[in-house]
């Protein structure tokens, strides 16, 4: 029961399965024998005997010039009737003017070739590209190599679409130079940008003021010329980094930005000076040509206009009898003693002018003064004292004695000042007696007292009643023995509407009339109840006692005091009223 093929070169792609019926007979196939049948399904396995084929010879694609690298442009697909690994296809670009601008990858799930952007496009530079793409089988069966080639090619044409692009500067960055202290309006440099679109719109320029807060520069909005409008100082700022904007005139949203670095070129405008505030010391016993200090200089200018420095003495003191100067030719100089022996008593301080010149073009120089003090030294040259007063004070008082005397004087002055201040701050008595009359006195206490034992703040005598002790108790509710005529006040006219003047006049009359009750007085109550030296506080009992006091004046006080006049009036008047 061996099944064999009956035809050569069967094609799976034409027919993959065959169904046959097999019959088996016994008795050698003679008459009368029995038979049985079965159905057999035969499937042809695939071999790579078909190359990939593109269904069309040209593919058309388009992409915007604003697309970014990696963006998909389009897809191509070559058909291979084989299946499995025999049908795998790989794509590649083998020719064309867009090989550097595009790339192609294989999508193994869909067996498609994906064309992607490799570099940025520019519509204004090139509007279309052509690619030759090849599709080839990955696995080739050597038995069927004669059926080859197992690959195919296709042409892909890609057109670039114009996009609205921002302006583009001709350089990614600019570097300019300008001399310091240049006049206002000096041109620093020029930037240039253009519209890459076909419309080629006009461009306007401006400076980002966040990068030029001090407004050292300005730019011509039309041609991009940058100018310095303020004096530039290299020693203050050697570089200025600004940003320039370029925008389309009719499309303000389309703008570009470029960095601009401006170097301030040095000009020799700073003279050299001492590197520090030098102060030299020379011994009284210094020897001739002895070096006692080395000086150096600084220059704010650039190295081209700074060192090397030249040190010298002014021409008028070139033959200075005390000191001389030696230029060490390494931007330092040494000061030496020209003569032997100095005396602090004759002169303890010398001022030596030194001229320092730089190597700029033109050179600048400055005169600096070196302070030299004469000091006492031991035999080894170590400083002992630089005070010229040391010799003078030996004949008189020492420094310590003078300081002690001054301190005593200062202490005495402080004591005197404190004494005078305390005297002025001593308070006057708070109660002023005027002929033993304590009426109409206001006692003011502006400090806290010390209790009953504190007799400095007030007079304790005011709390006592000296008249009561002597047996005389004045009556404060009767008319005084002495009487004064009321002072005529300024009475306003009856029809006057000035109420303020009226009230003030009445107050003045009441204050100046001592006969008008109530009488101004200080009532002193030392004790209470019967037996007090102050006596009774009520005058009602006087109505039932004999009294020599005359209360007839109560009749003149008006109806309001009529009841009191009846109680305290004379007996005759009382009888008549009865």
Automatic annotation (TrEMBL):
UniProt GO MF annotations: beta-catenin binding; cadherin binding; calcium ion binding
Stretches assigned to the Cadherin domain: 10-54, 55-169, 170-274, 274-391
GO BP, sorted A to Z: adherens junction organization; calcium-dependent cell-cell adhesion via plasma membrane cell adhesion molecules; cell migration; cell morphogenesis; cell-cell adhesion mediated by cadherin; cell-cell junction assembly; homophilic cell adhesion via plasma membrane adhesion molecules
GO cellular component: adherens junction; catenin complex
Pfam families given in the database record: CADH_Y-type_LIR (PF01049), Cadherin (PF00028)
Membrane-topology annotation of the record: Single-pass type I membrane protein
Cited InterPro entries: Cadherin, Cadherin-like_dom, Cadherin-like_sf, Cadherin_CS, Cadherin_Y-type_LIR, Catenin-bd_sf
Broad class of the protein's primary localization: membrane
Subcellular location: Cell membrane
Domain of life: Eukaryota
Keywords recorded for this protein, A-Z: Calcium, Cell adhesion, Cell membrane, Cleavage on pair of basic residues, Glycoprotein, Membrane, Metal-binding, Repeat, Signal, Transmembrane, Transmembrane helix
Membrane-spanning parts: 401-422
PANTHER family: CADHERIN-11, CADHERIN-23
Function summary: Cadherins are calcium-dependent cell adhesion proteins.
Record protein name field: CAD11 protein
